[in-house]
């Protein structure tokens, strides 16, 4: 459910980060998740993994999914100042946290075609990595905005690599997709979405289908 809106002012990214966001449509925040939070986040992920029938709609095969949006550490991670500053830069106006869930590509699976989370939708997505990631265990590949020619083109994509605690924040209209988890190493992450406040009523109508249990009434303003 959604309680009364409570405006929360967010900061601004550094000039360098703002320039990267404007140019590329994404930003990789290295080590942004506090080290002390990472193991509790992994425990929250494991506690949230269940059977396929726990979801309102079927999930894509080849992935492990986790319900995590009621966990307080997960919620605080979604409110990290650097993450909110990047989202505010891209959205440019009042916004809210619409959804957060856990996802992990299973061994030998997980590859996605290049796609856009919200083609034509003014929204921001983010991935909070709970394990080290790279091309061997299902890391995300992206097509920087400046290279995007409209149609998906694998030759233009860059595969990201980094460590647990990194956060990838990106325009939901950015071409991206996971790679195959060839090594079978763990690659857990939290996937979340920020939407403009004007989209709140439409999103609230689909809370059950989207498995949103949290109170998402907090309003963020750049």
From TrEMBL:
This protein's UniProt keywords: Dioxygenase, Oxidoreductase
Alphabetized SUPFAM superfamilies for the sequence: Clavaminate synthase-like (SSF51197)
InterPro entries, per the entry: Phytyl_CoA_dOase-like (IPR008775)
GO molecular function, one term: 2-oxoglutarate-dependent dioxygenase activity
Highest taxon in the source lineage: Bacteria
Pfam families: PhyH
Protein name (record): Phytanoyl-CoA dioxygenase family protein
């Amino acid at each position: 459910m959604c309680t009364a809106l409570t405006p929360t002012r967010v900061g601004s990214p550094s000039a360098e980060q703002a320039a990267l966001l404007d140019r590329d449509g994404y930003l990789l925040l290295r080590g942004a998740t506090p080290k002390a939070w990472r193991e509790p986040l992994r425990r929250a992920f494991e506690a949230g993994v269940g059977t396929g029938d726990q979801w309102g709609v079927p999930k894509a095969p080849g992935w492990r999914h986790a319900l995590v949006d009621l966990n307080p550490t997960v919620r605080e991670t979604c409110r990290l100042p650097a993450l909110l500053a990047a989202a505010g830069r891209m959205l440019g106006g009042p916004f809210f946290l619409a959804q957060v869930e856990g996802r992990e590509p299973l061994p030998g699976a997980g590859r996605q075609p290049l796609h856009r989370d919200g083609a034509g939708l003014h929204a921001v997505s983010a991935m909070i990595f709970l394990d080290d990631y790279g091309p061997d265990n299902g890391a995300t590949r992206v097509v920087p905005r400046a290279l995007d020619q409209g149609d998906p083109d694998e030759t233009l994509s860059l595969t990201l690599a980094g460590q647990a605690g990194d956060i990838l924040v990106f325009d939901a209209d950015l071409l991206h997709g996971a790679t195959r988890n060839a090594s079978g190493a763990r690659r857990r992450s939290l996937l979340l979405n920020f939407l403009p406040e004007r989209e709140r009523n439409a999103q609230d109508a689909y809370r059950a289908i989207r498995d949103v249990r949290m109170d998402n009434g907090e309003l963020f303003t750049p």
